[in-house]
Write a structure and sequence with these properties.
Length: 280
């Protein structure tokens, strides 16, 4: 499980429409160093981001941060600072909640988690949620006394129990990209025997009007279900309106009985998330 992103300079471009269905976004900043698993793409050209995404899926790299440049060649991209600020806000709100009550109730990770699934051809692929939350039942202490996800016995190093809760945050990416990611993470069978699957996932998608962000659409997807239609969000937040909170119940984090009562619910504020996202 890796650490959090280092914030970088964000592009000022915004989506012109929520209906855009591109796979990925050329507004993200471009990076220089190629990870080993992506080096086969160097020097290759594609006609569109959609063609590139299909090639990535063949290799089980659906979440790879790459894009098709204006010359058709593949370029690496880094997440915008808007994404970094949003995911940091989710992590900070969870951390403040769990440290503000009696006991320790879980850990949070940004972009260091792998969710494994099989595609229609039976090939094992993976998705990487933007933010992951684990309750204590899926954690153990490492040699330094820090809690970390339990590794699955008999599986390759680094294959861990899935988080209880995952978040995807979308400012630039098109609907098909995010819908596919959520469906892969929430509607799949166990790939590694002994694994425990994500209980609930959330997509927080920025709403735009006239090319400017005006709020969030929030989609909740329980285990074994798929994304609802884009015009049927679970809830919505509008900037300047009343706060809307995503409620993560104790049961969502694996707690039952008296422990669940002690744990209570984690409430993620969309108003705080919005302020963090747009903070200069």
């Amino acid at each position: 499980m890796s650490g959090a992103h280092v914030p970088i300079v964000e592009s000022l471009s915004l989506d012109s429409s929520e209906d855009e269905e591109r796979q990925g976004s050329a507004q993200d900043c471009v990076a220089e160093e190629w990870p080993e698993e992506l080096q086969f793409l160097q020097g290759k050209r594609f006609g569109s981001d959609h063609e590139l995404q299909e090639e990535l899926e063949k290799h089980g790299l659906g979440d790879a941060r790459v894009l098709v440049g204006s010359d058709g060649f593949v370029q690496l991209k880094m997440p915008s600072s808007r994404l970094n600020r949003a995911t940091r806000s989710i992590a900070e709100q969870f951390t403040l909640w769990k440290e503000g009550i009696t006991g320790k109730w879980g850990i949070v990770d940004r972009e260091g988690t792998n969710i494994y699934y099989r595609n229609a051809q039976g090939q094992v692929h993976k998705r990487c949620p933007d933010v992951s939350l684990w309750g204590m039942s899926r954690l153990s202490k490492n040699s330094e006394g820090e809690y970390q996800p339990i590794e699955i016995p008999g599986e390759p190093e680094g294959v861990e129990l899935e988080p209880h809760v995952v978040f995807q945050f979308s400012s630039h990416n098109g609907w098909l990209d995010e819908e596919g990611a959520m469906n892969n993470m929430m509607d799949h069978d166990v790939v590694h025997p002994g694994n425990e699957l994500v209980q609930v996932g959330y997509l927080i998608k920025v709403r735009h009007q006239g090319g400017r962000p005006v709020g969030f659409k929030i989609f909740r997807v329980p285990r074994g279900q798929r994304m609802p239609p884009r015009n049927q969000p679970t809830s919505e937040y509008t900037h300047g309106g009343n706060d809307v909170k995503i409620v993560i119940k104790a049961a969502d984090l694996g707690y039952t009985g008296p422990t669940a009562w002690m744990c209570g619910s984690f409430k993620l504020s969309m108003k705080k998330l919005w302020a963090a996202m747009l903070r200069a």
